[in-house]
Amino acid sequence: MRDWRNGDPAVRVVEALVRKGDVVVDVGANWGYVAANLARLVGPAGHLHVIEPGPRNWASLEAIRAR
């Protein structure tokens, strides 16, 4: 997904499918760009499970989790 704000077709599909309260998995979360947007879509009632094997990206993902 190139840019969340510029109408990437993949983004439109995700926004059409993910609802408040959903459970979503982001496999290969990298630094968390998509994860942050998924967290916004599922809201506080939802759950986002993030899988990222690269330790250099964990600090960024932890910052998103803290929000």
List the helices and strands and how they pair.
Layout lengths: L8 H9 L5 E5 L5 H10 L4 E5 L6 H9 L1
Any overview of this molecule?
With 67 residues, the chain is an alpha+beta fold. The chain has one domain (9-66). It contains three helices and two strands. It has a two-stranded parallel ribbon with strand order 1-2. The longest helix has 10 residues, at 33-42.
Strand content: 5-15%
Count of extended strands: 2
Shape: globular
Q: What structural class is derived from the secondary structure elements?
A: alpha+beta
Uncertain ranges:
none
Give a short synopsis of this structure.
The chain has 67 residues and is of the alpha+beta class. The chain contains 3 helices and 2 strands, in the order αβαβα.
Keywords:
3 helices; 67 residues; single chain; alpha+beta; globular; two-stranded parallel ribbon
